[in-house]
Amino acid sequence: MNRDPQSWARLGHALRTAREYRGLTQQELAVDAEVSERSVREAENGTVPKVRMPYTVGRIAASHGWPEGAVDAVLDGAAPPGEGWRDAPVEQAQIDAEQLAGIMTNAMVRATEHATAAEIRAATKIALDELRKQGVIRETNGVQPSTNQANS
After folding, report:
1. pLDDT tens by residue, 112-126
2. What is this structure's pTM?
3. How many CB atoms lie within 10 A of CB 19?
4. At what angle do helices 55-63 and 5-22 cross, to 10 degrees?
5. CA angle, 62 as apex, 59 and 67 as ends, to 5°?
């Protein structure tokens, strides 16, 4: 059995992403896989088992529709099976550039201690420009749509 912590962390991330893709809570997945919520939490946290592969990991993977042997394959470096492990496609995002800028700015403020507001705004602008270039968010002409319902 693979005991590499990074491999288990990768497996945990894939299991968590598959669950989130399905829109399930850890508790709902536990019921579906017929395991404890603690087992789901440990699997998603990438906890390396002390002795042998827990049977619960296979049940969780099977609940996601993964074929037999997929857990070992992921632990050995293979990509998780199916599309359920991937993040939701960008087209499904319901956010505009202004909202994204606010989210990114708030995240940077929380993540940095000594950056100035101007530095954070500049970093946010760089990220937004790259997202526009990649086609993740639309180009704008500098005019933001009104959120005032009276103008509609």
Report:
1. 777 777 887 788 888
2. 0.55
3. 24
4. 40
5. 135
